[in-house]
């Protein structure tokens, strides 16, 4: 890892560079960091009276490389606005031909500096970092933009606490390390073996750098850190011939270790895409009980660019279930109003169809009916019934994780949870209740179709405001409860389902409440 914090104030810049920056409108230049590719100055942008960071490239570039530099920055400028990518405010060349980039000034420094000052980062922070950086790479890769030098020193911390990726393409502009296979660009400790071997830069090499960054954040050092007195070529030899050091030896959980190892696989074809890394890390956040971070990916792949392919190289998982989970239904705190017709129709439908969806307007009682149906048929399912509550879920990427959590399923690998669910449910005779599917109908339909196709003894009872729309689905409309006409009330209202329900809810809210001759008309009007 780079020993220099790119935003720790050190010394004034040289007079020549300071004068050139001032002439370009960036005054009071103070050097705040330097690395292999350039020197960073904190400056005041005179026209806007704001502090900015200006990176001046130290390499001696000819006209061809200066033009390449501008092309790279124009490409990076297409990512402007992404919350986890440092915006390029300006890119130009000084009067004496020095290329420079203007960026927001991030006073909190870099992830590299945080690791050096505080040691390994907490697991929750590293997972959040990984999700955000994977999202940034996904956005870049969708536009065909490569970073080429992913490492902790190139991840800055904004004033709002967000990690932001910087220095897109800089390694490609300023040359690199010469090996027997040619010029290698990037930072040695975080460079992919295929890049060392002379293969062209690729999205998978960026993913390797992300995995290496997560390794460093969790352990406090790079996986292939240069040893004392070690020649650069010897370091490159270790990167290309030795397996990735085992993160588990540093206390990294099994599933997180597997994600890192897949990202740092020696064969670039077996590495996951940035989008897949993001999904696996978010599933890991869910498994470990952390808040699941959102990602900001708004850019669609350009025309003609293939979407990332599915990878089949995930290791076989070793999953387990929490005792007491996966077969319990919630207790009913109030009595169930009589829906004899719907109960009978639902039980008949479930006996012939493997998917029954209860549809109806919100608040009509679909969930209560589903729970009562499950209670009536639970003895028909040797492996129990499980309620999966989806009402608060808005992100389809987390759907499989929520189902796994409801089943009490704990997977210790990095394999996609959808595959783990299929493996777990394949031989089970179980009823799965998917409640409130209307927010993610399409995603629920796809998962349901997969599970029913691969798990022959599984049946699914869903509740939704609309059907899932897949083959073999039985649909039962749940109508509102009937209410008496307020203008023609019968003397006995106790047998009416809607009035019974209102009376129970009223008694729960105000002990002692009951339906009387005086309030029955009002109750009937409210219930109608």
**Which quaternary structure do these chains form?**
single chain
Number of strands: 17
CATH topology of the largest domain: Transferase(Phosphotransferase), domain 1
Low-confidence stretches: 2-13, 171-186, 299-326, 331-336
Class derived from helix and strand content: alpha/beta
| Largest sheet composition | 6 strands, antiparallel
What form results from the Cα inertia axes? elongated
Count of separate structural domains: 4
The CATH architecture term of the largest domain is Orthogonal Bundle
Strand proportion, as a percent range, falls in 15-25%
- Any idea what the radius of gyration is? 30 Å
The CATH class of the largest domain, by name, is Mainly Alpha
CATH H level, superfamily name of the largest domain: Transferase(Phosphotransferase) domain 1
Could you please describe the fold and organization of this structure?
This protein is α/β, with parallel strands linked by helices. The protein has 4 domains: 11-104, Phosphorylase Kinase, domain 1 (2-Layer Sandwich); 111-287, Orthogonal Bundle (Transferase(Phosphotransferase), domain 1); 320-477, Rossmann fold; 486-527, no CATH class. It is built from 17 helices and 17 strands. The strands form 5 sheets. It has a 6-stranded antiparallel β-sheet with strand order 1-2-3-4-6-5, sandwiched between helices. A hairpin with a 5-residue loop joins β5 (90-93) and β6. α4 (123-142) runs antiparallel to α10 (274-287). The longest helix is centred in the first third of the chain and has 20 residues, at 123-142. The radius of gyration is 30 Å and the shape is elongated. The chain starts with 10 loop residues before the first strand and ends with a helix. The relative contact order is 0.08.
């Amino acid at each position: 890892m780079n020993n220099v914090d790119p935003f720790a104030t050190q010394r004034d810049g040289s007079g020549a560079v300071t004068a050139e920056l001032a002439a370009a409108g960036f005054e009071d230049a103070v050097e705040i960091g330097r690395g292999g590719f350039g020197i960073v100055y904190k400056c005041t942008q005179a026209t806007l009276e704001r502090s900015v960071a200006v990176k001046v490239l130290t390499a001696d570039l000819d006209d061809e490389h200066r033009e390449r530099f501008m092309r790279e920055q124009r490409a990076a400028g297409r990512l402007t606005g992404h919350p986890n990518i440092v915006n390029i405010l300006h890119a130009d060349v000084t009067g004496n031909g020095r290329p420079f980039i203007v960026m927001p000034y991030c006073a909190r420094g870099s992830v590299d500096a945080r690791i050096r000052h505080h040691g390994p980062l907490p697991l929750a922070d590293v997972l959040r970092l990984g999700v955000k950086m994977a999202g940034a790479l996904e956005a870049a890769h969708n536009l065909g933009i490569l970073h080429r030098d992913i490492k902790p020193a190139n991840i800055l911390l904004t004033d709002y606490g967000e990690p932001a990726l910087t220095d897109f393409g800089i390694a490609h502009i300023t040359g690199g390390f010469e090996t027997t296979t040619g010029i290698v660009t990037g930072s040695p400790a975080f460079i992919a073996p295929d890049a060392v071997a002379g293969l062209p830069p690729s999205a998978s090499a960026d993913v390797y750098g992300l995995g290496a960054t997560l390794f460093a954040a969790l352990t406090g050092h790079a996986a292939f850190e240069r040893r004392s007195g070690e020649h650069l070529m010897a370091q490159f030899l270790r990167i290309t011939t030795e397996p990735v050091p085992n993160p588990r030896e540093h206390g990294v959980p099994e599933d997180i270790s597997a994600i890192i190892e897949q990202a740092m696989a020696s064969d670039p074809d077996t590495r996951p895409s940035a989008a897949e890394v993001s999904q696996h890390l978010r599933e890991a956040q869910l498994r470990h009980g952390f808040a699941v971070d959102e990602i900001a990916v708004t850019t669609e792949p350009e025309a003609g660019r293939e979407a990332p392919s599915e990878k089949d190289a995930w290791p076989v998982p070793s999953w387990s279930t929490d005792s007491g989970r996966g077969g319990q239904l919630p207790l009913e705190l109030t009595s169930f109003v009589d829906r004899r017709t719907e109960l009978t129709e639902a039980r008949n439908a479930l006996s012939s169809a493997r998917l029954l969806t209860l549809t109806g307007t919100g608040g009509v009682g679909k969930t209560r009916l589903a729970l009562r149906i499950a209670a009536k048929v639970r003895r028909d399912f040797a492996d129990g019934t499980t309620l999966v509550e989806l009402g608060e879920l808005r992100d389809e990427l987390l759907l499989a994780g929520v189902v796994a959590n409801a089943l009490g399923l704990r997977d210790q690998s990095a394999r996609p949870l959808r595959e783990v669910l299929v493996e777990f449910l394949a031989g089970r005779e179980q009823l799965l209740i998917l409640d409130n599917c209307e927010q993610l109908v399409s995603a629920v339909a796809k998962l349901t179709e997969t599970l029913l196709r691969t798990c022959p003894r599984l049946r699914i009872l869903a509740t939704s405001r609309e059907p899932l729309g897949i083959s073999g689905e039985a649909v039962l409309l749940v109508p509102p409860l009937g209410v008496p006409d307020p203008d023609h009330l019968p003397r006995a209202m106790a047998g009416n389902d809607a009035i019974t329900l209102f009376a129970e809810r009223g008694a729960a809210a105000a002990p002692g409440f009951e339906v009387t001759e005086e309030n029955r008309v009002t109750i009937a009007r409210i219930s109608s």
